[in-house]
Design a protein that fits this description.
This protein has 514 residues and is an alpha/beta fold. Among the domains are: 172 residues, VC0802-like (2-Layer Sandwich), CATH 3.30.2130; 180 residues, Rossmann fold (3-Layer(aba) Sandwich). It contains 12 helices and 15 strands. The chain has an 8-stranded mixed sheet. Strands 11-10-9-12-13-15-14 form a 7-stranded mixed sheet, sandwiched between helices.
Length: 514
């Protein structure tokens, strides 16, 4: 079940953004030269990590939004399959246009009228071509998966009917105060990253690079003419179907005379009039995004239906970590081939599963003291193995990962045998308690220091109980040195990822912590 929080209207939400990169209005020449400006929502605090991944895997420089949780980069449209395989991004959209200093009128009616008039002036053609291409790749993937499974009904976690996550659509001008799913245009679907939740379920990560890449090229070459149909406001060639759409508005800032619902409603009305599309909040084909952050406005078209961070987990626990955040934590530690990476409090296994998927040349060990958590993690690993078996031309179905039930304060691992420790520590909210953390944290740091290699070992630890962690770390200064601290938003909680370096000092087996 997907829940989208609807922020209070006048509170600044880190969600809506500004956009840095160049606008998208330039019309390219031949279809294969079509370039897309892509916006990606990422875990707050990990914008630079995501930008590094984009540079490394796509060769594109990213600009980080002034508002947290978004980056922008330019890629050839035929690279869309690789874009969907990025591990650090939650949701993707193609930028229609960005305004860095949009002047809103003080009067509500005038401000909303300006937004309506904006629709006719925007360069929709190329972004809609990118959306069409993205859609066609998604459909091809679905067909291939169904064929592979020899079961046309099987959905393989693909949501072709795109659930509406809680942002609304122009459409029926319901009042602004309708909380989620206000028909009038779901409000600033909250917070820092999740908003336009969605990618075509695991959209681009399950297929072979070459296969998808050639599909993208074929679509661009064959389709450049027919793919513009969405932009014409008519149904695709040969189809009498009228596209359905919704508008999702994310607004941040306290100087606007209108609410996010009102903006989405009126902007959506203009979109409907311009394209002659049909408004539908739940079974929509196109999701138009209107991001407003103070005086910065970005208009985009969503390329994802379900957030990419849902890629690995099928069995959820009370505090399941997002895969994108797990990737960011692992990347901070810079894993090297043959490194032994341990998550001593693995919960549902999000961190080790992400690690084994992205760093298969390392050995990953996951453990937890809760038998139920170990069972969930084992089921998630099993699901990953099945997914690998269903991949085309899969060479091996194994993953370098083991799951163990153990006591975090008495790990069955040799002293100095572990290179990297990455874990999500109990916040003391849904699991454990703040009081217990005062004993648990120093004991954990001591035991993790014992198993970690002196001098070269490192750890990335996530916690919201920052006061307790700081106190415990101050007592463990002989074993751990604090490096970077990344501030993140985890389910609305202000948390931190601490990157620690293991000192050369030998860890004592027993020590009085306080």
């Amino acid at each position: 079940a997907r829940a989208v929080t609807v922020p209070r209207r006048d509170m600044a939400e880190p969600e809506a953004v500004c956009g840095p990169g160049p606008g998208t209005g330039d019309a390219p020449g031949p279809a294969e030269e079509l370039v897309a400006v892509i916006g990606a929502t990422v875990p707050t605090g990990f914008e630079l990590t995501a930008a590094e991944e984009v540079q490394e895997k796509l060769g594109s420089a990213s600009s980080v939004s002034r508002d947290r949780g978004k980056i922008y980069f330019e890629v050839p449209a035929q690279s869309l399959p690789q874009v969907h395989r990025l591990r650090s991004v939650d949701n993707l959209f193609v930028v229609v246009q960005e305004f860095k200093d949009y002047q809103f009128k003080e009067n509500k009616e005038d401000a909303l009228k300006d937004l309506e008039d904006l629709v006719k002036k925007l360069p929709w053609t190329d972004p809609l071509k990118v959306w069409e291409l993205n859609n066609s790749l998604k459909k091809k993937k679905t067909k291939r998966k169904k064929h592979n499974l020899q079961n046309p009904a099987s959905k393989e976690k693909l949501n072709d009917d795109g659930e509406g996550e809680g942002t609304a659509q122009k459409g029926t001008s319901k009042e602004e105060d309708c909380p989620q799913n206000a028909a009038g245009a779901e409000p600033a679907s909250s917070q820092d990253k999740e908003k336009t939740e969605g990618v075509a379920s695991q959209n681009g990560e399950e297929e072979e690079d070459d296969h998808e890449h050639s599909d993208a090229k074929d679509e661009l070459q064959a389709g450049s003419g027919s793919e513009t149909k969405a932009g014409d406001g008519k149904a695709g060639e040969g189809e009498a179907k009228v596209l359905k759409f919704r508008v999702t508005c994310n607004r941040a800032g306290d100087k606007h005379s209108f609410t996010s619902n009102e903006a989405a409603r009126d902007f959506g009305g203009a979109v409907q009039e311009h394209f002659q599309w049909k408004a539908d909040m739940t079974n929509f084909d196109v999701e138009v995004l209107l991001n407003i952050h103070n005086n910065e406005v970005v208009v985009g078209i969503a390329l994802t239906e379900e957030s990419l961070h849902r890629r690995n987990i099928t069995h959820f626990g009370p505090t399941t970590l997002r895969s994108t955040l797990a990737y960011g934590m692992l990347r901070l530690c810079n894993p090297q081939p043959t490194d032994i990476i341990v998550d001593p409090m693995c919960g549902t296994g999000a961190i080790p599963i992400e690690g084994a998927s992205e760093w298969p040349s390392c050995y990953h060990i996951a453990g937890d003291n809760n038998p139920q958590a170990v069972k969930r993690a084992a089921n998630n690993i099993s699901s990953l193995l099945k997914k690998n078996e269903n991949k085309e031309s899969s060479t091996s179905s194994g993953v370098p990962l083991d799951i163990v039930q153990w006591d975090i304060c008495n790990l069955p691992l040799r002293t100095g045998s572990v290179d990297i420790i990455v874990t999500d520590m109990p916040f003391g909210k849904r699991i454990g308690s703040k009081k217990k953390n005062w004993d648990l944290y120093p004991a954990c740091l001591m035991e993790m220091g014992r198993i970690c290699t002196p001098g070269t070992g490192r750890a990335a630890l996530l916690t919201q109980d920052k006061k307790c962690f700081a106190k415990a770390l101050s007592r463990m200064g002989h074993i751990w040195r604090k490096g970077q601290t990344v501030w993140v938003n985890v389910g609305g909680l202000h948390a931190a990822v601490y990157l620690l370096r293991r000192t050369w000092e030998r860890a004592e087996e027993k020590r009085s912590f306080w």
